[in-house]
Amino acid sequence: MMKQFKIIPMAFLTLLLWSCQDDEFSIGEVVAPTNIQIEFELEGQDEEFPFGDGSGFVHFTATADNAINFSFDFGDGATQRQSTGEFTHRYTRNGVNDYTVTVTASGTGGAKSVETVQVTVESQFDDPETYQFLTGGEGQSKTWSIARNEPGHLGVGPLDSFGPDFFAASPNQLAECLYDDEITLTGGVNSTITFEHDNIDPDGVGVTFFNGEFNTIGGGGGPDDQCLPFDVTGQKNLGLAPSGFNTPEDITTGTQFTIGDDGFMAYFINTSTYEILEITEDFMHIRALSGSATNQLAWYLKLTTDADGEQDTTLETQFEDLVWSEEFDVDGVPDPSIWSFETGNGAEQGIPGWGNQELQYYTEDNAVVENGVLKITAKAEPANGFNYSSSRINSLDKFSYQYGRIEVRAKLPQGGGTWPAIWMMGTNFSDVGWPECGEIDIMEHSGNDQDVIHGTVHFPGNSGGNAIGGTTLQEGVSEEFNNYTVEWDENQIQWAINDQVFQTFQNNGELPFNQEFFLILNVAMGGTFVGNTVDPDFDESAMEIEYIRIYQ
User: Fold this and answer.
1) In this structure, are 363 and 220 located in the same domain?
2) Positions marked active-site
3) With the C-alpha atoms ordered 107, 112, 118, 119, is the resulting torsion angle positive or negative?
4) Is the pTM above the cut of 0.70?
5) Structural domain count of the chain
């Protein structure tokens, strides 16, 4: 049974009064809170465990007459402001320790009253490895910053998938004010950690990257993320504790940390508590929960101690056995045992422009295998009432697969308005339609945005312009062949060019990416993806594919 302690204020009562008035301005009546009372309960305290159950949790309740709000200083470097006066704090210093808790009650007119109480509580949590990784050890410091070169260095997803399903940033995709931040962690005695946040940008101004939901806290507005002036100065404490995030054991270290005085890790999402998913000497992957009660999200950050170094993005494949390949080694039409042509403009199915306002008419004449290479050529020519012709082929009902590594070696067409694509859809497309069947775009390229490669997934709730994907710059995609790769299993989908990963998406059992998918190859002209603007001097250009190989 928990014991309850009540502290009745006696001699120590300080009134901090402030008032100011002139002929034009009045702050109203100055009323200081009185009769402050502080109650606290130690989690799991009984006769056998007089200092609590070792979790370090203490439940505080502060009351006072005429109080508007309360500020807690828990004596371990952590602070909290609460209008209700109720808060649960976790002490993380290992062993049995004494803390002086200070409660400041605020009244009208700026009046404040202060009371203190002594708390003795036990914490059995100790994670010396994480302490060492974070700080370098007692008396040592490490400086962390966002791992800007890492795919997914900032991401967001739903609470139950434990991955950035909604968005994962590509390398260097976001605002420089996020990448300028430096966070220095210093190890102290008894595994204590101090936290210092430097967000001074190259112009000498303290600037923070705010999530759009919280822009008003930084003095901004609107729904988009913004770089806003924000004071983060001052040394704070960082405390380690067992994770309370209910994350599956195989994807977390089991440790979380909380930063005192409302500190945060570079990106402002209005939280100070982060779960450590992975940590090494120079890399850290953390997760935090933030948002309104009806729209709470999981946020992911990757940090590094080597801000200037290039991160290793080499694909570490788990699939080594070649199980299928199309080498395009027979000249003529694409192998009819694998490929079927889709002809027309989509209007025949009631969706002109294939649902994307595309300008071409697909024929069976614009795809041919020559000298070991498949060529799909888009041409500026009259074709059944359209100004461009091209081809689109797919392997539906002839070849499909589930999970593995698909590698396509291709050279892309060039010219404003071209839209080459190498992609896949679920084999249940005919039964459930799109986007319910799911779509994985291995490669898309806009001739109006030369050398920018897209990797994308479409599924219900996230399709078309709301799809989830990433981009990377690969110079010379229309001059030379590159390997476009997707590695796909039940947990994630990764996109790579020449074995360099640029995008990762977390898969789960509720998404349509856990079935067999078939292949689609095409070159469109115009359409929503490329802005429907075609170079008036465009004549013709081809997507060339040397091979498609699947490993499992």
Assistant:
1) no
2) 439, 444
3) positive
4) no
5) 3
